[in-house]
Amino acid sequence: MSKILIIEDESAIRRVLVKILKEENNQYEIFEAEDGLDAMEQIKSTDFDLVLCDIKLPKMDGVEVLEATKKIKPESVFVMISGHGDLETAVQTMRLGAFDYISKPPDLNRLLNTVRIALNTKNLVQENTILKKKVSKNYEMIGESAAIERIKIMIDKVAPTDARVLITGPNGTGKELVAHWLHQKSERSSGPMIEVNCAAIPSELIESELFGHVKGAFTSAVKDREGKFESANKGTIFLDEIGDMSLSAQAKVLRALQESKITRVGSDKDIKVDVRVIAATNKNLKEEITKGKFREDLYHRLAVILIEVPALNERSEDIPLLVDFFAEKIAQEQGNAKKLFTPEALALLQKYDWTGNIRELRNVVERLIILGGETISENDVQLFASK
């Protein structure tokens, strides 16, 4: 049963809205409030599927109710009710997160159609949230070694905050996984997580990629383009391989962190951004600072929290768990039964030198599953692991 709150100080209009909604669907559970303060008390104590809110209200107007609700229950769906002179304000409420607005006197068909769409949207958002929680399990780090347990504890402490995090470690150790896990466990998990591989973008394009550009800023800029920082607004931006970023781009990232605003290439207009920054690198940034290749002030801005992801050789006790995880995942991808590894095969894999870390281990497990027997033996590892 959908719970709908009607906030309207004019009792005649409120009665009409209640009557229309009950005739449309007798499964709607209707609640009423005649002023903003009463509405807020009900919103705090009840999770409504939809709020129909007049803009002009006594004690606390509709815009204030919308803003206050979005702070405590950001998933709330609001449809604003506006008089003729309130249309400009109604448009403003859309920018604040309202789903739609309806003019007074309300048109019956328009009202019912908006209510149906708004409730369907609410259901889709809830389903998407559940799906995201299921997907987020894929980001959990596999392992029970002391090193991994320390990282898990740190993530649990740091994720709920907005503290910037610098993740270090060799290639293939799972730095991206740590970044995703931080985002999924954060208060920003419903917002976007935008990934930028700084090493993969040419230095002359990195500023445009991060901060966007305006039409005509350079030869190929045929239209305005939003940058990654804008795309990540209200969410997280993950700057992978930040040690490969040019010094000029570093200066602009530093400004974005200091002032929470960016400027598109070719523009002089500042754009406010609300972004959490997580960065990662396989380089020793302190050595890069000494060489003049990385800004020390940016390093200290980024490294509020340092998380070092160990090489696989430093946590070989986790290899059996990782092999089991990859074997199950590969079986699901290929639509086959999961293959088991003998204790001898696992023991041999633990002795190898994994210079490519977890990424290399995953490739070897897949190769063994394809080329090995029904059960992966020590002999299979010796034949096909190619170490």
What does this structure look like?
There is one protein chain. With 387 residues, the chain is α/β, with parallel strands linked by helices. The protein has 3 domains: 3-134, Rossmann fold; 144-306, P-loop containing nucleotide triphosphate hydrolases (Rossmann fold); 313-384, Helicase, Ruva Protein, domain 3 (Orthogonal Bundle), CATH 1.10.8.60. The protein has helices at residues 11-24, 36-45, 62-72, 87-95, 108-136, 146-158, 175-184, 206-211, 228-231, 247-259, 285-290, 296-302, 319-334, 343-351, 357-371, 378-384; strands at residues 3-7, 29-33, 50-54, 78-82, 100-103, 165-168, 193-197, 236-240, 261-263, 270-272, 276-281, 305-308, 340-341, 375-376. It has a 5-stranded parallel beta sheet, with helices on both faces. Strands 7-8-11-6-12 form a 5-stranded parallel beta sheet. Strand 3, helix 3 and strand 4 (78-82) form a beta-alpha-beta unit. Helix 14 (343-351) packs across helix 16. The chain starts with a strand and ends with a helix. The model is unreliable at 133-137 (pLDDT under 50).
